[in-house]
Specification:
It is a single chain. 73% of the residues lie in helices and 0% in strands. By secondary structure, the chain is mostly helical. The protein has one domain. Helix 1 runs antiparallel to helix 3, helix 3 packs across helix 4 and helix 4 runs antiparallel to helix 5. The relative contact order is 0.16.
């Protein structure tokens, strides 16, 4: 027996699937940002070596402020990518729970700066979250409604 679904049911299935995949993409982006933030630790270590380790007197040592400059750059780099990772991971959870749509759209814009994968995820987020049907899903989640069944189950007849 063939089960016919309406256009509304079809769109709901598509929206639910897209809203299931977007968080995974944000979690991957967050993981990449965590990995990139570790690169700043190299600069911090190099700066500490320049600032603290004594050099032999045969050559002129680098000025101490240069070491602290490297520490500051590495710390800023690590904190910036760490914060970006935390926000992207949080965005994945927000999309999964259908909460904070505006904050998710802001993070989509910020994600567009991470070429090429972040740009793809950001553009897809704009496409999905700006659909009227997805706005209705977010409004329903904010009102505390449970999601309606997507299609009739042919086994329950």
């Amino acid at each position: 027996m063939a089960v016919l679904i309406t256009e509304l049911d079809r769109q709901t299935i598509i929206d639910e699937e897209h809203l299931r995949l977007l968080p995974v993409m944000y979690w991957i982006l967050g993981g990449l940002d965590i990995f990139i933030s570790l690169y700043g630790l190299f600069y911090i270590a190099m700066g500490v070596v320049f600032a603290m380790v004594p050099f032999d007197s045969a050559s002129e040592p680098p000025p101490a402020f240069l070491g602290w400059f490297f520490v500051a750059i590495g710390l800023g780099f690590t904190l910036m990518f760490g914060a970006s990772a935390a926000l992207k991971i949080a965005t994945g959870f927000w999309i999964r729970k259908r909460r904070r749509r505006t904050a998710s759209l802001v993070m989509a814009g910020i994600s567009c700066l991470s070429m090429p994968f972040g740009t793809m995820v950001g553009v897809l987020t704009f496409i999905v979250l700006l659909r009227p049907s997805v706005e209705a899903l977010y409004a329903g989640a904010a009102a505390g409604e449970s999601p309606a069944p997507v299609a009739d189950d042919p086994t329950s007849a």
